[in-house]
Design goal:
CATH architecture of one domain: Sandwich
Shape: elongated
Structural class: alpha+beta
Number of strands: 13
Helix content: 10-25%
Radius of gyration: 52 Å
C-alpha cells in the first residue's frame, strides 16, 4: 500500500525558494571578486617598478569577504611600506616609499675599471727638463754691498723639482766670474738631500768678493745621481748675468761732479765782480 506524500505548505516552499535564490546570487557575485583580487597581484608580480595599489576601505559588495592567495616564487616582493629586492645578472637591493626598487650589484659581464695613468707635470717657463725626472729652474741673483771696496756678497739661487717616483740626493756648485772670464768666488758641494717625489726646493749660496766688478757672470751646476728610476742622468749647468753696484766708482764720479760744480760757481762769481774790487 503506497503512502501519498503531502505537499509542503505554501510558507515553507517560499522559504526554500528564497534560500536557493540567495545561494545562487552569492555564487554569481563571488567569482568576479576572486578575479578582481587576483588581477592586482599578477600586475605587481610582472612589473616590479609599479607601485602597489592602495587597499580599499569600502566594504565588499553584497557583504561578501573574499581572500585570494597566489602561490609560486615571484621575481620581486611588495610590502606595505614599499620595500623590494631582486636579482638580475648579479646582486642588488633597493628601497622606496612608493613601492619601487633600486638595484645595484656586480656582474661578470661588466668590465673592470682601469685606474688613470699618472702624467708628468709640465715644466715652468724658466725650468729645464733633466732626464724627465727633475726640473731645474733658472739662476737668480741679488747683490749685498759692503763698506770694504773689495768686499760685497752675491746671493745666487735656483729651484729644483723632483717629478720622479723616487727620493733624490744631489749637490750643487756655484761660482761667479768677471767680464774678463776670471773666476772671482766659488761655493762647491751644496747638498740637496731627501728631495721627495713632487717636492720643489730652493737651493742657494752666498759668494763673497764681489768688489767693484759691477757686471758678473753667475753659474750653477747641478750634479744628480747617476740614474733615477732607470734613467741615466748627467750634470746640468745654468748661467745668468748679475749686476753689482760699483759704489766706489759711483762715489768717485759723484765727488768729481761736485768739484766741477764748485769750480763753475766760483768762476761765475769772479766773472760778475767789478774790476778793481780785489785791488
Amino acid at each position: 500500500m503506497m503512502t501519498r506524500m503531502r505537499p509542503l505548505p505554501t510558507r515553507r516552499r517560499r522559504a526554500l525558494l528564497a534560500s536557493s535564490l540567495i545561494v545562487a546570487v552569492a555564487m554569481l557575485f563571488g567569482s568576479p571578486g576572486v578575479a578582481m583580487a587576483s588581477a592586482p597581484m599578477a600586475a605587481a608580480a610582472t612589473d616590479c617598478a609599479a607601485s602597489a595599489p592602495a587597499p580599499s576601505t569600502e566594504p565588499p559588495a553584497e557583504g561578501i569577504d573574499v581572500t585570494a592567495t597566489v602561490l609560486g616564487t615571484p621575481s620581486c616582493s611588495l610590502s606595505g611600506n614599499g620595500t623590494g629586492s631582486g636579482v638580475a645578472n648579479g646582486t642588488g637591493s633597493g628601497a622606496g616609499n612608493s613601492g619601487s626598487s633600486l638595484s645595484s650589484g656586480s656582474s661578470s659581464n661588466v668590465p673592470a675599471t682601469v685606474a688613470p695613468t699618472a702624467t708628468t707635470p709640465a715644466a715652468n717657463s724658466d725650468e729645464v727638463d733633466l732626464g724627465g725626472v727633475m726640473y731645474v729652474g733658472g739662476v737668480s741673483s741679488a747683490s749685498i754691498p759692503s763698506l770694504n771696496p773689495f768686499g760685497g756678497t752675491l746671493q745666487l739661487w735656483f729651484t729644483v723639482r723632483n717629478v720622479s717616483a723616487s727620493t733624490i740626493d744631489a749637490k750643487a756648485d756655484f761660482w761667479m766670474e768677471s767680464i774678463f772670464g776670471n773666476r772671482i768666488s766659488t761655493a762647491d758641494g751644496v747638498l740637496i738631500e731627501d728631495l721627495k717625489p713632487g717636492e720643489m726646493r730652493t737651493v742657494s749660496a752666498e759668494l763673497p768678493g764681489v768688489g767693484q766688478w759691477s757686471i758678473l757672470s753667475a753659474h750653477t751646476r747641478l750634479t744628480p745621481p747617476d740614474s733615477v728610476d732607470g734613467t741615466a742622468l748627467t750634470p746640468l749647468t745654468r748661467d745668468a748675468t748679475a749686476f753689482a753696484l760699483p759704489w766706489l766708482f759711483v762715489l768717485l764720479v759723484a765727488a768729481g761732479l761736485a768739484t766741477w760744480a764748485i769750480v763753475q760757481v766760483l768762476r761765475r762769481r769772479e766773472a760778475t765782480q767789478p774790476a778793481g774790487v780785489f785791488a
